[in-house]
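To close the chapter, one final illustration. This time we ask the reader to focus less on the individual chains and more on the assembly as a whole: which components sit near each other, and how the overall shape emerges from the parts.
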Amino acid sequence: MKYTDLAIIGGGPAGLCSAISAASSGAKVLLIDRNEKLGGQLIKQTHMFFGSEKQYASKRGFNISEILLDKLNDYKENVEILNNTTVLGLYEDGVITATKDEKYVKIKPKATIIATGASEKVLAFPNNDLPGIYGAGAVQTLMNVYGIRPGKKVLMIGAGNIGLIVSYQLMQAGVEVVGIIDAAPKIGGYLVHASKVRRMGVPILTRYTVKEAIGNDTLEKVVISKLDENWNPIEGTEEVIETDVMCISVGLSPLAELLQQAGCKMMYVPELGGIAPLRNENYETTVDSIFVAGDVAGVEEASSAMVEGYLTGLCAAEKIGFKHENYLELKKDYRNQLEALRSGPVGTKIRSGINKVMGV
Amino acid sequence: MRIDKHPILEFQRGKKIKFIFDGKEIEAFQGETIAAALHAAGVKVLGKSIFKHRPRGFYCAIGNCSSCFMVVNGEPNVRTCVTMVEDGMVVENQNGKGEIL
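The assembled structure is written out below.
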């Protein structure tokens, strides 16, 4: 059995920031990630971030990941990294079981932060399992991490920020984007991103859906169709698009299995992407000393995941007796940053979701 | 299908290696996953589904969805989207559940 003050599961933006925050408070931190390289999905983000300077705005995602790792290195005497480690279970007595390099390990922390992120949703239509149909994030990994094009042409499903950004990145990689469709009546992502792809000649069709995919062993064609005001396909509006790749970008849902296994109270909250944990203002779940941060607590953006990470790391460390010397000041700052990121009309949905999981 | 020129990224590929897929030798680079290397070689079908034997490719590419299972060096159910390719590796399509014994 391995003992530590705080175990953090997931080394993406939320996990890295939690680790920095808790280690700077004086807690011994064990950061667990299933990949070799830490950074989560930041490592494939080539676009510059929004937000304010505190959330590394105007820096590219993969650079932010390097900045956070450097920052974590400042506290290396308090941090142990377990990479290539997949967590298998979380038990009533707080014990975490995992496999590292094919070996079984048990970990007993005083508190745990779960920062496992989210997974891409799928869309239901005939033949949606044909090879050539990929999550938008998968295509991003393939081209931005491994430098491999997904195919010749791409039809993007979903005009949210991910769909728009990945479409632009596909063109940067030399792939033709035949169009972006979305079932909603309006483009969901920021107009800055939408304008950028439109200026490059990519049509964005709203109120459109996928009727079916066609192909023998791999994708060859996609049939799309227009939707009426009640989201039903209008007969006779079908169009056939020849393409070898279709990207699905219809949102993410929290990767919450570990929380469910640990017995945390969960709630279906569509605004947060699916099943999300109930939590208090310190991001502690209904199970004592199990905290959450980032997309697993409710799908948002990497910027808020980082601030949530800093806040949760601070609170979890305080809970087990490591109070940062500027605890109150920092806590207030992180809360203000989160409030600013969630302010205004773009934050309406997320604010409503958070109220539900906090029982407000 | 490999990207040579990119406006933002520079790809530093590892050492050139070779692995076997369905009896054929395929070139790959150290540091890339099996699924990525196969994709670069134009291979999209990685296996067949359990009951209806429908073709399977990867979907998430980060180890979440189990759609990329293949038989690697005789071991079934390997998530090829997160398993690095190695020199001399023998990779096969997985049909159905895969046999452990």
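Residues 302-319 of chain A form the longest helix (18 residues). The two ends of chain A are 40 Å apart (CA to CA). With these observations in hand, you are ready for the problems at the end of the chapter.
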